[in-house]
């Protein structure tokens, strides 16, 4: 079969022949239809993700750990967890029985495969207990997941949505998706701090953070009250690390602000995940959740893997 094959850590996958997977006991063959290539796939291949060791220890191997495909009986499913060295970026892959779930047959597989990113937007509710009317700040709103999160916040009934990015043209697009105010983070710290303070209205209730690093350090500084009193705590949901994988967290930023920090996985189980997934599918069918998809054939993987011009569109590979 044809596959995208990674030969060295940090390299670029090449389109080439690879032996067909043969399912063992308790495994199922998947005929791959669409795969969204995300930052996490590149981080695993680069050896910089916490799950990298298993993958990079099996080279040559096929990147990407989930996608949309068909079971041998033709049922369309979202699948995950392929058996290494097999990955999703191939004509066929092999996964443990049960490591898949049916997906709607009436929605384009290339669209379905992007919806996992929309579920991160639902973390304002599943992780942070968002209720309608609250103010939501989306850090990193010009990316694919951030643009979806702005729309999810609006659809869930946010009272005010503030969105950050580092490119004014893209920030204008984010405003059209539903942000009430936008902030460009590519400014000196004191200017950024003032912008966070000016845009917060009555205060940020929930922050959905795809950036971490400096923008969030500056934000935390603005949450520290200037006098003793009872503040309204901000709940920060950590989802991504596009700006940096770590940040400096001063003691007073926690002690006096009452800030609460959660991981995006908090509150997720099969039931809440199923509910979140059903909701984003319903919004997508109704045309209420929009996003850009850049479709490329598997044969174009070498060029596509290195693209940096996607500006909020998800790269989807079609084997
Ligand atoms: N936990 C999950 O399930 C999950 C799911 C999806 C994504 N994520 C994570 O969330 C993050 C965003 O994912 P994505 O798919 O939306 O990525 P994306 O489409 O590539 O967008 C990245 C975003 O981060 C911004 N950015 C990149 N480098 C930056 C820097 N040094 N300083 C400030 N901003 C920077 C980009 O701004 P420009 O537009 O100006 O480049 C853009 O807004 C990633 O860390 C990803 O791994 C997590």
Topology of this structure?
Blueprint: E1 2-5, E2 14-17, E3 27-37, H1 39-46, H2 52-56, E4 66-70, E5 76-80, E6 92-96, E7 100-102, H3 109-112, H4 115-121, H5 123-126, E8 135-139, H6 144-155, E9 160-165, H7 168-176, E10 181-184, H8 189-199, E11 206-209, H9 213-223, E12 235-238, H10 251-255, E13 260-263, H11 270-285, E14 292-297, H12 301-305, E15 313-318
Parallel strand pairs: 8-9, 8-11, 9-10, 11-12, 12-13, 14-15
Antiparallel strand pairs: 1-2, 3-4, 3-6, 3-15, 4-5, 5-7
Helix pairs in contact: 4-6, 4-11, 8-9
The structure holds NADP nicotinamide-adenine-dinucleotide phosphate (NAP).
Protein name: Zinc-binding alcohol dehydrogenase family protein
Domain Alcohol dehydrogenase-like C-terminal: 146-210
Pfam family, one: ADH_zinc_N
């Amino acid at each position: 079969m044809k596959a995208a094959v990674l030969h060295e850590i940090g390299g670029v996958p090449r389109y080439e022949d690879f032996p067909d997977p043969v399912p063992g006991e308790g495994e199922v063959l998947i005929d791959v239809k669409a795969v969204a290539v995300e930052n996490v796939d590149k981080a695993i291949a680069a050896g910089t993700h916490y799950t990298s060791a298993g993958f990079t220890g099996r080279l040559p191997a096929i990147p990407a750990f989930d996608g949309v495909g068909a079971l041998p009986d033709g049922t369309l499913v979202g699948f995950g967890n392929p058996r290494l060295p097999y990955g999703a970026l191939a004509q066929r892959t092999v996964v443990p029985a049960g490591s898949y779930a049916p997906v709607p047959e009436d929605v384009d597989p290339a669209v379905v495969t992007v919806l996992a990113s929309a579920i991160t937007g639902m973390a304002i509710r599943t992780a942070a207990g968002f209720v309608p009317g609250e103010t939501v700040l989306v850090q990193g709103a010009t990316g694919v997941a951030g643009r979806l999160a702005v729309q999810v916040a609006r659809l869930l009934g946010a009272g005010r949505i503030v969105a950050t990015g580092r490119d004014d043209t893209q920030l204008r697009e984010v405003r059209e998706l539903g942000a009430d105010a936008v902030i460009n983070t590519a400014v000196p710290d004191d200017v950024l701090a003032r912008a966070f303070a000016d845009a917060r209205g009555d205060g940020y209730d929930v922050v959905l953070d795809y950036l971490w690093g400096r923008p969030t350090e500056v934000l935390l500084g603005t949450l520290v009250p200037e006098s003793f009193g009872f503040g309204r705590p901000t709940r920060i949901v950590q989802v991504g690390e596009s700006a940096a994988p770590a940040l400096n967290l001063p003691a007073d930023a926690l002690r006096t602000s009452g800030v609460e920090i959660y991981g995006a996985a908090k509150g997720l189980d099969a039931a809440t995940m199923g509910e979140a997934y059903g909701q984003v599918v319903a919004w997508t069918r109704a045309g209420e959740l929009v996003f850009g998809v850049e479709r490329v054939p598997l044969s174009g993987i070498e060029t596509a893997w290195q693209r940096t011009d996607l500006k909020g569109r998800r790269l989807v590979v079609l084997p």
